[in-house]
Amino acid sequence: MLVKDLSKMGSARVSVEVLDGVDCVLKQGASDVEIHFYQIAAQHLKGVNSPALVKLDGHNLFIEHIPNRISLQELRAQPDLFAQLASLHRSEYIPSFPVKQHQWTDEATNEALKILNLPDSVESSIKQVQSLSSCIFECKNLISGDTNDGNWGTRDNRELVLFDWERFGHGSPAIDLAPLVTGLGTISDYKVIIGQYTQHNASLSETELLRHLIIAKCWIIIEVVNILVSRNNPEKEKYIDWYRTQIPRWLDSVKNWL
Questions:
Q1: Domain count, the chain
Q2: Which domain of life is it from (predicted)?
Q3: CB of 163 within 8 A of CB of 63?
Q4: What pTM value is reported for the model?
Q5: Which domain holds residue 81?
Q6: 138 - beta bridge partners?
Q7: Which residues, including other chains, have CB under 8 Å from residue 223's CB and lie 6 or more apart?
């Protein structure tokens, strides 16, 4: 029986179901990437907590229900957050299946800019950031690709779990750090995140990671705007108006760090 629809930005329909008397999460129309993650990859990623696979029926994916939702503030306070992400990013596991190919295309930028309707100078600045973006996609680190607080929760024993893996792929660790910064953030916010993360993984210098994080934040703007519109999110206008207000000031504050 359907209990509650949990889907937000994702394309799959997500609900809590009862299977053999136990609550689990059903993702209807789960992607091949996420199915293969749970079938194959999860067991190889030591130090990273993900839900257990309960059942697979075609593209209907049943996974362990992580009962306790968590806010961004609570997530940032979790003692093993950055240790888990660093374990993922340092993993030497090589997926045997096609993973999500992250990229920042001209088409995506143009579509988002039509929606945002920003001043020409701001559009030019975004395109300049895009021209620098190959560095965050050329990194060979494994990444979640979607670490926003809505994709985390805790088990009843307080273990922190990341439960959305449809964007599992390769890229800079900054792609997974960017959603952990509230809003668009400031350089000071980024440095705090980087300082916490590099205690567990110093494979990239703090200077390089800061640059990557700014680029990743800008790319996420483009991704989110296009997803909001393509999926007709009911709150799209609220978010788009917020971006229109915030982006010019934010770009001006970070441009000297690129």
A1: 1
A2: Bacteria
A3: yes
A4: 0.94
A5: 69-257
A6: none
A7: 108
Tell me the per-residue pLDDT of 7-64, one tens digit each, with 9 for 90 and over: 455 556 889 998 888 899 999 999 999 999 999 999 999 999 999 999 999 999 999 9
Supply the CATH number for residue 136's domain.
3.90.1200.10
- Would 73 be classed as within a structural domain? yes
Instruction: Find all residues with CB under 8 Å of 229, minimum gap 6, and list them.
Output: 111, 115, 236
**Tokens at 93, concatenated:** 């596991």
Task: List 169's β-bridge partners, or say none.
Answer: 100, 143
C-beta separation of 165 from 38 below 8 A: yes
Task: Note the pLDDT of residue 9.
Answer: 52
CA proximity to 147, closest of 179, 184, 181: 179
Q: Residue 67 burial (CB < 10 Å; 0-12/13-18/19+)?
A: exposed
Cα–Cα distance for residue pair 245/68, rounded to 1 Å: 33
Kindly compute the dihedral angle of the four CA atoms of residues 48, 138, 107, 122, in this order, to the nearest 10 degrees: 90
Q: How many CB atoms neighbour CB 229 within 10 A?
A: 15
Is 247:221 a contact under the CB 8 Å cutoff?
yes
Q: Is the residue at 6 inside a domain?
A: no
Tell me the pLDDT tens digit for each residue of 55-111. 999 999 999 999 999 999 999 999 999 999 999 999 999 999 999 999 999 999 999
Asked, for residue 212, whether it belongs to a domain, the answer is: yes
Name the β-bridge partners of 60: 28, 57
Report d(CA 165, CA 50) in Å as an integer. Answer: 9
Is residue 98 in a domain? yes
**End-to-end CA, the chain:** 51
Q: What DSSP state is assigned to residue 179?
A: G
Reduced to 3 states (helix: H, G, I; strand: E, B; else coil), residue 201 is coil
